[in-house]
Amino acid sequence: MVNGERNTTFAAVRQQFHTYYGDHVEPLPVPDEDLAACREGRFVPPSEGWEKARQKLGDHGIVVLLAPAGSGRRTAALRLLLDLCQASKLYDLETAWTQPHTKHLQNIPAGGCLLDMSEPAEKQPKADFGRALLNWSANRKQHDSYLVVITTESAWSGPWADEARSVTVTLGSPDAKTLVERELWAHGAMHRHAILDEEVFQPIWQSAPRAEDARRLAKMIATSDDADPRRICDEYSGWTSWFENDFPDDLYDRAVFWAGALCDGGRRESVLRMSDALLTNLGDSRTPKAILSGTISSTRFANAKMKEDGERVRIAPENHGLPTAALHHLWDEFPTQRKLLTEWAVTQATELREDDATRVVDALVELAVHHRDGEILKQLRDILAPRRRSLAVRALSAATLDERFGSYVRSRLYTWLYGSPGQQVINLVAEVCGGSFGQAMPERALVRLCLASQNSAYGSEALTGALVALAQAHPLKVRSAVSAWLTEDRSRRAGLVAFIALASTATGGKLLCGENGSELENQATRLTITDCLRQALSDPDATTTADAIISLGLSR
Q: Is this prediction's pTM over 0.70?
């Protein structure tokens, strides 16, 4: 650094940087915006289990909330913790583990922690996990620290879960009408409050919808230009009445409809190509003669309630949200065919023109998020990425930042790097980490880039690009991370690969030497650079790059 103050700052940041290997849990501060729905005047408590949950958390330092995703359980969990801990000491425990174990929780900071165990790990916890979790929480309670676990009945089951039954509570969703009223107030749309008393909304209130659905309804009411409450209700319900009355009966028309839902607004040629490919996958063996003597494309579009606009087609554009509802309907009504449908859609995204392929992939990401469907992500990695990596990166980047599904996707990125991943997977994860994900969450991205670097070959353009992109946006974090990797035996190769990647570029070279190059005067920095280059020269895989760095001059 240029002066002692900056050296001190650098040392502090480096000391705070955590390096993870294998199974681990990352404690991450809860964003302020996530606490907005917990505040007094907006928060609506669950309809069931609320007081019991408060009592168990206060008595035991832990409570396990059983409720489906979208039920408002995260908001309820944060409110429980907020009543006991300062907002600045609330943490999400983001898991990247193949098997849950309390040993991964040993370095969690004091305060209130939220652990989401909705997605089953690859391996079930050992039989004593529940008891160990209770003991861990009891010890932390002595220091005014608390843990709330959110999960589902299916995920939280087995002998290990029975051990924690004494702190388990089933939560109900909050009253939907009250929640919609308060969300309208939060959206600045209280002037539309009277619409909630319309008779058409009564079946919704009686159905006790999930909190997520109630918030979705509030947003529809707040932003809709349509004053007709019936159409708002139709859209909210996923256009159920439309599927009852207008959904095509013929398979050939349905194929066009489903293709159109995935590629809404796309070229008619793309939609027809997709529909024919689906029919082929389903075993359709019509000859060209049979196809040419069959129903013409314009009639198929009309039967599928699609409207043509020049070379583009859309599904019933007057019914806002129908294409998305159509895909959810497909996934809900034919769950045993999801893998086949996913492979079909992803394969088509590798062949269509870029803009239509993007439409398809965006629709798939929405499906993955809504249905928590990891198979879609896997096929984006295995089928799309080898042929259109930029499109796969775009899709995965959006998924990592999704507030509903992001934690799961970020965990998958890490576990994809376990063992001995191929360079193609490493490059894919690296590009995701260097994009919008890394810009928004640099610490989390760097944790994954460490493992990517550990497994990567020298000279990966994707890894270099990711590190340089993060270095431009977060120079101190990147420099402290690479320095930390270099000082630990188990991550030294990661540090060396990352160092070589950065040093091979002008931006990275400046980062390593300091903003104005004067850090070369610092003996520790000079020794580190010399040592890294010496090691690189002794590794046949890195020799060429190291020679180039020396020839060009690190400081440029």
A: yes
